[in-house]
Amino acid sequence: MRQERPRTWMCDGSTVVPGREPAEPCRIHQWFGLFIHEEWTLMTKPTSIGRPLEESLMIVGIGLDLAEVARYRFSPERLAHFARKIYTEEELTYALSKRNSAERFAGFFAAKEAARKAFGIAFPWRSIGVSHDPTGKPFLRFEEAARKLMRPQESVSVHLTITHTTTTAAATVILERNACVS
């Protein structure tokens, strides 16, 4: 019975791909008693998920937060007081334009808290805000006060996702940096 081979897979830091001869057999093949067929090769340039290593990103921070939506159902007076401390004008405008604004407020708070956890920095609440691109994808906007605090991590890419139900909002922030930058 012929053994099926994967199309591509990692081997000693290089990717095995069809169409070229291997430079040399690698240890993983010897460990598992596998043989490289002539249609497989070992790329000479190490890769990570299809990118050259020098273009690869590594995760340098993850933040996750949950917020109970019920805590963000504000009276107009409470909203004015809380909003002055926590939310940007853009966040207020966006949340109040939606039918279930409490879900948006909880999501924005969770996103800010997740960013604080991912960076390991207690940003002032109003110095970071959630915005949306034309497709509706959320992203974090950093004011000058926040940018000053994160100067050592300038080359970081920030990814944000927010979700909510009628009772809970959750946000995750992932920070990536070029793998070859120390």
Structural write-up:
By secondary structure, this protein is α+β, with helices and mostly antiparallel strands. The chain contains five helices and ten strands; from the N terminus they run ββαββββαααββαββ. The strands form four sheets. A three-stranded antiparallel β-sheet has the order 1-2-3. A three-stranded antiparallel β-sheet has the order 6-10-9, covered by helices on one side. It has a two-stranded antiparallel ribbon with strand order 4-5. Strand 4 and strand 5 (51-52) form a beta hairpin. It starts with 8 loop residues before the first strand and ends with a strand.
Topology:
Layout: E1 9-11, E2 14-18, H1 27-32, E3 40-42, E4 47-48, E5 51-52, E6 57-68, H2 76-86, H3 89-96, H4 101-119, E7 128-132, E8 138-142, H5 144-149, E9 157-164, E10 168-178
Antiparallel strand pairs: 1-2, 2-3, 4-5, 6-10, 7-8, 9-10
Helix pairs in contact: 3-4
Rg over CA atoms: 23 Å
- Per DSSP E runs of 2 or more residues, the count of β-strands stands at 10
Which regions contain 5 or more consecutive residues with pLDDT less than 50?
5-22, 25-48
State the shape: globular
- What's the tally of helices? 5
